[in-house]
Amino acid sequence: MGKAYGSAWKLRLYKRPDFGGQVVDCSDDCPSVYDTYKMREAYSCVVTDGAWVFYDLPNYRGHQYLLERGEYRQHGDWGAALPGVGSFRRITEF
Known about the structure:
It contains 1 helix and 7 strands. The chain is mainly beta. A hairpin with a 3-residue loop joins strand 4 (about 50-55) and strand 5 (about 60-65). The longest helix has 5 residues, at about 35. The strands form 2 sheets. A 4-stranded antiparallel beta sheet has the order 2-1-3-6, with no helix packed on it. The protein has one domain: Gamma-B Crystallin, domain 1.
C-alpha cells in the first residue's frame, strides 16, 4: 500500500476563465460533472487541498490531467486543449 497523498481534498471549479461565472465547491470524487453540477465545461479551477485527476469524459474515462494545489486560470494551465471536464477523483495514495 502506498503513502497517503493528503488528508483533505478541496477544489473549486469555475465555468469561465480567470475564476469567473458559475462556481462549484468539491471535496469528493465525481463520476459525472454534468449530472452532479449541471456543468459541461470548466474553464478555470483552484485546488486548495490535496491532488486530483480530471478526466475529459464521465465515469473516469478519457484523457487524464493531474491537478495539484494551485490556481489554474484557464483549462490550458492543466494541459487540456478543451475545457470539457467529464469527471474527477481525488488522489488518495501514491
